[in-house]
């Protein structure tokens, strides 16, 4: 999330403005969430772009089953291609760009629920840590931006949104500068 905000300083400033207006200098509370739609949209867009668990977790099929015209035999291992679903150009406009607006109503005042965002998967096997993870992302993001401006290290090569992929997806090594906003 910090990397995306450093690559997109305009977006970062918008989050900071919203945090300043709604939270000010107080400690961010989960209750603040309902009043910061842009900040929440940034979290959703970070979850989409990063697709932290790109192929979910391997699951084993317990009995022969038919899905979408395919027979999946008992004991097959099944992976869900979350990264692909999050970057499908037929679903997402300009999928490789970081655009929080895609999760906002046209007047920007509301977060729009989107069933195509499946960072935590869905159904019976969905991630049990979803609520905790979203709470933490909110508190960490707002706390960091309350205090710091996050930017790219000018002495380093400009990082990209490319990532290394294994069970989780993570950005290539890069350096960021955190500048205290109170100075
Ligand atoms: C941004 C953070 C996170 C993302 C994107 C994420 C995503 C996922 C995904 C996609 C799955 C696989 C679901 C499936 O197979 O359909 C999963 C499983 C799981 N996650 Fe998370 N997760 C996150 C944070 C957490 C946290 C904070 C916890 C615990 C505190 C957690 C605990 C688990 C566990 C235990 C499973 C396995 C559940 C099972 O096998 O039934 N996750 N997660």
UniProtKB/TrEMBL annotation:
Any Gene Ontology CC annotation: cytoplasm
A GO molecular-function annotation: oxidoreductase activity, acting on paired donors, with incorporation or reduction of molecular oxygen, reduced flavin or flavoprotein as one donor, and incorporation of one atom of oxygen
Keyword Disulfide bond set for record: no
Cofactor(s) recorded in Swiss-Prot or TrEMBL: heme
Ribonucleoprotein keyword on record: no
Sorted UniProt keywords: Heme, Iron, Metal-binding, Oxidoreductase
Pfam families the record matches: p450
Any one GO BP annotation for this protein: organic acid metabolic process
Entry-linked InterPro entries: Cyt_P450 (IPR001128), Cytochrome_P450_fam2 (IPR050182)
Record family assignment: Belongs to the cytochrome P450 family.
Protein name per Swiss-Prot or TrEMBL: Cytochrome P450
């Amino acid at each position: 999330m910090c990397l995306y905000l450093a690559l997109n300083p305009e977006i970062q400033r918008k989050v900071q403005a919203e945090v300043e207006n709604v939270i000010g200098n107080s400690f961010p509370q989960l209750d603040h969430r309902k009043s910061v739609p842009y900040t929440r949209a940034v979290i959703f867009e970070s979850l989409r772009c990063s697709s932290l668990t790109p192929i979910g977790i391997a699951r084993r099929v317990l009995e022969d089953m038919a899905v979408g015209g395919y027979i999946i035999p008992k004991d097959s291992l099944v992976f869900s291609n979350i990264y692909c679903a999050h970057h499908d150009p037929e679903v997402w406009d300009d999928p490789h760009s970081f655009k929080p607006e895609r999760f906002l109503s046209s007047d920007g005042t509301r977060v729009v629920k989107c069933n195509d965002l499946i960072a935590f998967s869905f159904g019976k096997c969905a991630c049990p840590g979803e609520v905790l993870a979203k709470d933490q992302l909110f508190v960490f993001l707002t706390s960091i931006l309350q205090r710091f401006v996050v930017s790219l290290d000018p002495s380093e090569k400009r990082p990209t949104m490319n990532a290394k992929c294994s069970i989780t997806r993570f950005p290539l090594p890069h350096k960021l500068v955190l500048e205290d906003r109170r100075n």
